Amino acid sequence: MSARWVPYGKDGASEAGDELLAVRAAEGDEEAFEMLVHRHGAAMLQLAERLMGTRTEAEDAVQDAFVNAWRKLPEFRGEAGFGTWLHRIVTNRCLNLLRARRPAADLDTVPEPAAPDHQSSPVRVAESHAVGRDLGIAMRCLSAEQRVCWVLREIECWPYESIAQTVRISPEAVRARVFRARRVLTEAMAAWR
Questions:
Q1: What is the CA radius of gyration of the chain?
Q2: How far is C-alpha 174 from the chain's CA centre?
Q3: CA-CA distance, 139 to 148, in Å (whole number)?
Q4: What is d(CA 10, CA 13) in angstroms, rounded to the nearest whole number?
Q5: Which residue among 16, 129, 143, 187 has its CA within the 20 to 30 Å range from the CA of 82?
């Protein structure tokens, strides 16, 4: 889990550099945009993978988001940091893809995991993989909106206000979606308690 949400890179020093690179990229400087992609690509891929659930879908979403960002750079006004703006584009791309997905299997079709044997290390490793798999299955039962809000809050440790700005809803609506997502995931993962 991330320790805390930072809107731009790992330190504040990169924000000013991002703004200059964004201006240059908006003027058509492909090298400046390439530097922005290099600087933010890994973080955007990690975010997208958490939202989408698979690396392949995450890579597609990030690629689409960067293409969209390149096209929209002339509209970037710098009111928010470049990293925050890019997070919004990636999150919205993932949200659109999640909404377009077909509904996943009901929770009733998810097999109950076997009782763990805590005596051997390979079993613990297998159990850890099973928990991750079951959490992934349970997350597919969330609506796209719930999933995005839950991942940004619980995994990325974003403040409610930042999530609200990113997905363009009120902080109260974010809290409600996170609450409902927690409830669904708690029920789905009850066998692992």
A1: 19
A2: 15
A3: 10
A4: 9
A5: 143
Q: Given this model, what pLDDT does residue 114 score? A: 56
- Tokens 């490793």 belong to 125
Of 30, 26, 31, nearest in space to 74 by CA = 26
| Tokens describing residue 149 | 């809000």
| Average pLDDT per block of 10 residues along the chain, 193 residues long | 43 65 90 93 92 91 94 84 89 89 56 55 74 80 90 89 90 94 88 76
Measure the CA–CA gap between 79 and 117, rounded to whole angstroms: 54
Contacts 24+ apart (CB under 8 A), 63-71: 64/93, 65/89, 65/90, 65/93, 66/37, 66/41, 68/93, 70/25, 70/33
* Burial per residue of 24-48, b for 16 or more beta-carbon CB atoms within 10 angstroms, e otherwise: bbbeeeeebbebbbebbeebbbebb
Q: CA distances (Å), 84 to each of 19, 45, 47, 160, in order?
A: 11, 14, 12, 14
Enter the tokens of residue 157.
């440790």
The closest of 82, 76, 86, 75 to 15, measured between CA atoms, is 82
Does residue 18 contact residue 11 with C-beta atoms inside 8 Å?
Answer: no
Which 8-state DSSP code applies to residue 79?
A: S
Task: Tell me the whole-structure pTM to 2 decimals.
Answer: 0.65
| Residue 14 to residue 90: CA distance in whole angstroms | 19
